[in-house]
Amino acid sequence: MIDRIAQLRAAGEADVAAATTTDELEELRVRLLGRKAELPNMLRGVSELPPEQRGPVGKAANQARQALQQTLEARIAELAAGELDARLVADRVDVTLPGRREPVGGLHLITRVRREIEDVFLGLGFDVLEGPETETVHYNFDALNHAPNHPARDRSDTFYLAPSANLPAVERAGDPRAEDGGSGRLLRTHTSPMQIRTMEREDPPIAVIVPGRVYRPDSDATHTPQFHQVEGLWVDVDITLADLKGVLLSFARSIFGDEREVRLRPHFFPFTEPSVEVDVSCFACKGTGIREDLAGHPRCGLCKGTGWIEILGSGLVDPNVLRSVGEARGDDAYSPEAVQGFAFGMGIERIAMLRYGVPDLRLLYENDVRVLEQWA
Amino acid sequence: MRVPLSWLGELVDVAGRDATEIAARLNVTGTELDRLLHHGILTPETVVVGRVLATEPHPDADRLKVCRVATGGDEPVQIVCGAPNVAAGQVVPVAQIGTVMPDGTKIKRAKLRGQVSEGMICSARELGIGDAHDGILALDEQLPGAREIPPGTPLSDVLPHADDVLELEITPNRPDCLGLYGIAREVSAATGAALRPAPWTRAGGLDEEAGDPDPAGDAIDGFSVEVRTPRCPRFTARLFDGVTVGPSPLWLQARLAAAGQRPINNVVDVTNYVMLVTGQPLHAFDADRIAGGLLVVREATDGEQLRTLDDQERTVQAGELVIADDEGITSLAAVMGGARSEVHEGTTRVLLEVANWDGPTIHRTAQRLGLFSEAASRNAKGLAPEQAAWAQALATRLIHEVTGGRKVGGTIDVGGWRERPAQQPIALREARVTRLLGTAVSRRRQAELLASLGFMVADTSPETAEGEGEQLVLVPSERRDDITREIDLIEEIARIGVVADLAPTLPVRRRLTAATLTPAQRARRRAEDVLVGRGLQEVAGWSFTDAGAAERLGLSADDPRAAAVRLDNPLSEDHAVLRPTILISLLDIARRNRARGVDDVRIFETGTVFRDAPDPRRPDMPFEHLAIAALVQDDLFAAKGLLESLLGALGIDGWSVEATDQVAFLHPGRAARVLVTPAGGARRNGDGPDGPLQVGLLGEVHPRVAERWDLPQVAVFMIDLDQLLPLVPADVDFRDVGQFPDARFDLAVIVDDEVTAASVVEAARGAGGPLLEQVGVFDAYRGTGIPEGQVSLALHVRLRAADRTLDDEEISGVRERIVAALAERVGGTLRG
Fold this sequence. Notes:
Chain A: It catalyses: tRNA(Phe) + L-phenylalanine + ATP = L-phenylalanyl-tRNA(Phe) + AMP + diphosphate + H(+). By secondary structure, chain A is an alpha+beta fold. Helices cover 39% and strands 17% of the residues of chain A. Chain A is built from twelve helices and nine strands. In chain A, a hairpin with a 2-residue loop joins strand 6 (262-269) and strand 7 (272-281). In chain A, helix 1 (2-18) packs parallel to helix 4 (51-90) and helix 5 (109-123) crosses helix 10 (348-356). The longest helix of chain A is centred in the first third of the chain and has 40 residues, at 51-90. Chain B is of the alpha+beta class. In chain B, strand 7 (110-112) and strand 8 form a beta hairpin. The radius of gyration of chain B is 41 Å and the shape is elongated.
């Protein structure tokens, strides 16, 4: 018996060693160690042996079975690893094929720039407000100190709303005017009416910006009949023109780069006094007016050789504006002797055109997604 | 405003400063340069006076002549000339070889049909003077003393013809700068160059006869003027006899041309010249065509007519200002003269009107007629009455010099302007300047700056300490409308002396909260970002659309969504109304992109929509609200999935949809209203106290509507953000997700077709009790094995307890309760 066991073990080990696939080993496992195999049957038959043989035979059979088992498993593991390697090699793909496409969305460039501007001014201490796009002549012009014959009121410069049977008449001070179509209502031409609405509603000090859509009847490469502005207003007891310059310098550097300078140029706006336009030093030519980085050192096309680019209009809030707010509030909180401040207004599209080199404003409203996706 | 540099140099001493330098200073003191241009020949130094010695017909060209012209050199030059009027003996302008003409062409030695030509004899137009191009400019006929000029003399020495011109943008508050003398004063203040005396003063070269008041009195024989409206504060008139109408002298034509005005005749040219210097428009009547000798200045009545100088028949409206004589209206006051009394070739007597008008009235008239002539645009700004006398004075001299006309009689000067209260000086507090500008400006410096602009400044208490003084300032008359307050003076100080070198400072925020976006603003950004994250491209549509858009959406006229806000003055019919729904923009943009070959449109927009109905927040204004809407080329469930993401990201829990077939532009079987039940404490703006709020719509666009936009199946949602954003919870409280495993099971329940998935889920949820964590439908099946008219809904149920692992008994208990509730509440039977 013992010899037979040794024989079986040796033969089994030889077969295992000769096997070349895990499938063969599986067959061997059944043949050598399965229910019908000889070795396990010998083990099962141990109890029928004479008592003195039971010990040695059982021990030998058991050892042989375990040894075969181990040999089998070791060999299976060895072959399985090789087979996996082979399978993986056969499973090679062309990694240069395209990935499964996930659509990539994007914000419109105007939203993207609006958020950039909002974030800069949040950091400078301004709250963000929004306001209505339809307005009264009062809030858009009168309360903002526009003379009755100021050209911005012309029908060629302002969209007026047609009279409506569904709306009550707007209460108006002064003569009814020819240009407003009799309704006294319009599409705001700037975000500035929110200066008035904010001051009527909130006590000083206030520091707010107002992003929003505005409207003017213009259409060419740099004008669209709708566009977006960001209004700024800071009123407190001691806000100066120098503060205006500091805030706008910070803004300009955040948006256009740390090396930028700003320049104030006196101008006229009805609702600020003094009024200034603000230029930023040209970031294409570094304010020199000449493109030294280009062959032949041509004149800079962005700033037209001046070294400066106009970015916005601003000034100190005109006392008449504060006075008009005081009349509406019926108190002295905004008395021009008590408070002072600055206001500014910039075009989001203009900033976008400058920052991203958009050649024609109308592209932004054509909404060709292939164009818009460039900024996704 | 075009400012020829040489003309400017007559009014302010700009010697040694070039146009670029002057423009740069003006630019930083409030007068913006539109552009710097060169008028006339680009190389004026190469144009000389020549004398035509002889002309011969060109041997090979009928219309050309071969001329020998003395141009100052040793030998005459040969020039081939095509002008019919060229003749021996003429004194002519010669553009020599190397001259660059205004259009950039260079005069070169050339052969014309075999004959050498060494230069060009110029016409007036080629020189940039006027329009005359019917022949060369014979200086001997038009320039006094031309025959004595030696050939070879630069033409510029005897006739300034080319010049640098500043084209300036004048802001509407500065009508004084619509005259060259006003610009000259700005140049003086900005650069320190000496301002010369005004040309309408005796110091500026006028004799006493031109003065104000007129020493000859206020009467003119045979003429009188009545002003019957307060809107003409001053009307002055002078009569000139012995006028000979003809072309202006060349110097005058050259000046007007450089300033952008076309020379017409000497009388009209003088009025234009004086207007350009003083800023004050003038009008010349043929005195013999004023019927009855009486001019009445009055407000028109509706329907009156006249023929204006441009030969248009015009009808005036009540309240517009006119000048009438015995035969009716003869001039549209301050805007354009009448054809009937126009100065013509045979005119010998001229009545010169210089008047002051109410700016807004003129502005309205000019605007209604679309007639912003040089005169109208100046009068519309509102000028100073004093300017009328200046213009009369300067014109009186020039009419004499240029037309030979002599003033006859005195100066009619009527209107109520002299009764106005005398102008009071404005007090200027020294400290106020510093406080507003943020930099110290001494009182002495303040006075200097104001004086440079023509203000009279008096320090009323010179002994007061630095920083505490006050000065009294008198404003020059032409600035009176613009400068009425202390702040206006401060602006003048700022723009001339402070702004250019102001050191920046940063203000301090004195609100005791940090600046942050509001919860609604953050939520709006989140909503946009969620859609971007799901592959949608944001677009920006037009707020405008056409009046027919509502009908294309299938909306009946009485649908509230069809009530669009109309513009009174739209740019075009396509943009005549404001969009009543953002859907229009999305459909337009989807169509355009598909037309350009984009085959999977996924877009959204956040924007304002408008309705012609009172806005509850502002009852006299149209209703407007902010909306977010998305469009995908897919079915309802694609759009709903996006909406679920959006609302989930915003933390809106209590929302649901309810099928509707009442929305004309949506598929009647695939459309829903989107409802939100506000969480406790949320701001309410719905109708019922407890009812869910409708915040928007969801669905597939009605195929008929989609077809009108050339679109296939598209699904949309539209949400009113003004309603939704206030419902977004500001904070989300921590919730323990539990450490013990959940228990899950699925159920398939068969219900009638009419039973909605939402009601099945609701029934299951109601029965699930506190252990139910989540229940949802993951499949709906109709077909084999399911009776006709019924549907099998597969539910996935998840249970969890926070403090233990659930045992089989608990799980099956919940399962049984759910099964029972489904049977009872929605008639559901378990499938197989």
